[in-house]
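ok, trying the design again with the full structure, not the truncated one.
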């Protein structure tokens, strides 16, 4: 039976941090003097023995991937023929759309390595079509099945199972760009391996920035690696800042569809069911991202990504509801001009741009329909309701805290959504579970974490979120 931890009125009480733009201060939330800026020892919850050495008091913002501007440097072409790419998560949505692009542009791109999960049949078809040199599959138990499926292939690829195989795909010596489509923190280590090998990153894995930015961004700068956003909103911003002078960016405006409940009265949210949350008004997507769209957690996480990608302060990143999903995002420049990127809601375009940047590749009107504004008629915008979408305040607060807090927010949300989809908690409980997990993490937030600490607190947040039901004395532990 689903729990109902919050009423609509109680949504207003979420306050694990002071989310006021002008008054928010991590030090105040930790009850430390505002002048403190050094590392302070705080007893941590028992972990795996590697953690508990430090909690730093002031969030250190890592260098952004694109500090308000994107200027194409003179690129030294280091390959012959089509651009060689590796794909992490080749059988997922991002991976299959990337391969569609490669199939349509064989003169522009070629695949040198693929990493997939457990869909052996689809992976085998991909190998037969694109002939990669290296293939990784998640489970070693599936290697024989994959070999059998490829038995008739003349030039067979090398097959490496498990995480090590994915890492080898990410740092394949022939690859110039790596498309990272693996979901969750499982994509972090392969992405780090690709960066250390000097590969540009076509980024479709949210955790790389939401959880990993304090570690990943300095590493990318060290190795002179480009991180190119493959989701529609950040691609839109990236396209708008092309050639922008330094210091010209004033504000980022992220657009949101509003999800399944954008036109539903707040008072009715306590009664919504999983099936209701999965009825997206615009698209058919996976369950998790569809629920995230309903709660607007997807947009809250994108605010954090925008901060890390483009260096904008949280005060200068806004969310607007745009039901038509045609304007993918906007920027405002210092002189008050607003630049926007428009297009049909199609993930292939931002993926293509990460692969081709700084070039623009001609696309067929048959497979890539052109936008007709006259047929659309009108585009509308409205401010999001913070009572309906408390995820926004939670995300801004976690973003301002920085460090491991953003990864904890993302992981807690992922677990809460899983519990909701399994009908073990109610819709409104998602917000409360995320809030309580972040509130608990204030005791041990690390602002300049190592990769191991990032992964550790991702796992901790999922476990803590899953056990909140028992800790509140409401029913047996969620496991």
């Amino acid at each position: 039976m689903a729990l109902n931890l919050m009423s609509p009125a109680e949504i207003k009480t979420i306050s694990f941090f002071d989310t006021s733009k002008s008054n928010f201060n991590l030090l105040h939330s930790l009850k430390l003097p505002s002048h403190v800026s050094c590392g302070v020892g705080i007893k941590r919850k028992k972990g795996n023995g590697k953690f508990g050495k430090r909690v730093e008091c002031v969030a250190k913002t890592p260098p952004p991937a694109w500090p308000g501007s994107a200027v194409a440097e003179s690129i030294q072409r280091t390959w012959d023929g089509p651009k060689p790419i590796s794909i992490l998560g080749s059988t997922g949505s991002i991976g299959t759309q990337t391969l569609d692009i490669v199939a349509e542009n064989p003169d522009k791109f070629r695949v040198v390595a693929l990493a997939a999960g457990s869909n052996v049949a689809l992976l085998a078809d991909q190998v037969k079509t694109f002939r990669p040199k290296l293939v990784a599959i998640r489970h070693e138990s599936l290697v024989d099945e994959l070999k059998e499926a490829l038995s008739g292939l003349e030039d067979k690829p090398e097959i490496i199972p498990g995480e090590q195989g994915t890492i080898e795909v990410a740092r394949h010596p022939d690859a110039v760009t790596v498309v990272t489509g693996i979901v969750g923190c499982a994509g972090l280590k392969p992405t780090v391996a690709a960066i250390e090998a000097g590969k540009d990153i076509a980024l479709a894995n949210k955790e790389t920035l939401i959880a990993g930015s304090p570690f990943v961004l300095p590493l990318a700068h060290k190795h002179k690696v480009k991180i190119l956003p493959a989701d529609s909103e950040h691609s839109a911003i990236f396209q708008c800042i092309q050639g922008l002078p330094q210091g010209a960016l004033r504000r980022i405006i992220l657009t949101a569809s509003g999800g399944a409940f954008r036109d539903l009265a707040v008072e009715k949210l306590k009664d919504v069911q999983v099936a209701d949350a999965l009825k997206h008004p615009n698209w058919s997507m996976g369950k998790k991202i569809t629920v995230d769209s309903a709660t607007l957690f997807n947009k809250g996480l994108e605010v954090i990504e925008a901060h890390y990608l483009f260096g904008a302060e949280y005060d200068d990143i806004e969310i607007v509801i745009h039901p038509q999903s045609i304007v993918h995002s906007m920027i405002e420049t210092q002189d008050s001009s607003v630049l926007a990127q428009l297009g049909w809601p199609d993930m292939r375009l931002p993926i293509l741009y990460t692969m081709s940047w700084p070039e623009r590749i001609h696309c067929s009107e048959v497979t890539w329909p052109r936008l007709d504004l006259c047929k659309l008629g009108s585009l509308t915008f409205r401010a999001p309701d913070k009572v309906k979408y408390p995820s926004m305040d939670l995300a801004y607060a976690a973003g301002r805290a920085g460090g491991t807090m953003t990864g904890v927010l993302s992981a807690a949300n992922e677990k809460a959504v899983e519990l909701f989809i399994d009908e073990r908690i109610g819709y409104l409980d998602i917000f409360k579970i995320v809030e309580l997990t972040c509130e608990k993490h204030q005791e041990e937030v690390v602002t300049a974490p190592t990769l191991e600490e990032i992964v550790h607190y991702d796992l901790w947040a999922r476990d803590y979120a899953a056990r909140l039901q028992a800790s509140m004395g409401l029913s047996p532990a969620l496991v």
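Keeping the full-length input from now on. The chain has two domains: 83-233, 234-362+374-471.
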